[in-house]
């Protein structure tokens, strides 16, 4: 197993699917140069998995009954907008 930390840029869409090595461990979400990014510890030799992430703004409705795991919070526009990242599990 060869592990590295990889960065994944997020789009401004509320739901997005990201392909990353199986069993990648999400370390954090932060804005870098104004763009939200996920950092993950990955096994670079593992097969890829598709993972679904949801972004919710503070005060926005969150789906009830959804299998969501909280990843972290990030800010945009010098803290004017605050968003919360969750991963969706089936």
List the helices and strands and how they pair.
Layout: E1 3-9, E2 15-21, E3 25-32, E4 35-43, E5 48-57, E6 68-76, E7 81-88
Antiparallel strand pairs: 1-4, 2-5, 3-4, 5-7, 6-7
Name the features.
single chain; 90 residues; mainly beta; four-stranded antiparallel sheet; three-stranded antiparallel sheet; 7 strands; 64% strand
Question: What strand line-up does the widest sheet have?
Answer: 2-5-7-6
Structural class by SSE content: mainly beta
**Sheet with the most strands, sense and barrel status:** 4 strands, antiparallel
Distance between the termini: 27 Å
Contiguous low-pLDDT stretches (5 residues minimum) are none
Total number of helices: 0
Q: SSE order, as H and E?
A: EEEEEEE
Basic shape: globular
Helix content: under 10%
Provide the domain count: 1
Q: Report the average pLDDT across residues.
A: 95
Strand content: over 45%
Radius of gyration: 13 Å
Number of strands: 7
Q: What does this protein look like?
A:
There is one protein chain. The protein has 90 residues and is mainly beta. It has one domain. Helices cover 0% and strands 64% of the residues. The protein contains no helices and seven strands. The chain has a four-stranded antiparallel beta sheet with strand order 2-5-7-6, with no helix packed on it. It has a three-stranded antiparallel beta sheet with strand order 1-4-3, with no helix packed on it. β3 and β4 form a beta hairpin. It is globular and about 40 Å long. It starts with a strand and ends with a strand.
Brief summary:
The chain is mainly β.
């Amino acid at each position: 197993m060869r592990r590295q930390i990889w960065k994944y840029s997020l789009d401004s869409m509320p739901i997005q699917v990201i392909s990353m090595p199986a069993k990648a461990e999400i370390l954090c979400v932060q804005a870098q140069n104004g763009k939200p990014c996920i950092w993950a510890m990955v096994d670079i030799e593992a097969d890829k998995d598709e993972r679904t992430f949801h972004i919710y703004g503070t005060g926005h409705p969150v789906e009830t009954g959804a299998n969501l795991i909280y990843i972290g919070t990030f800010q945009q526009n010098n803290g004017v907008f605050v968003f919360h990242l969750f991963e969706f599990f089936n």
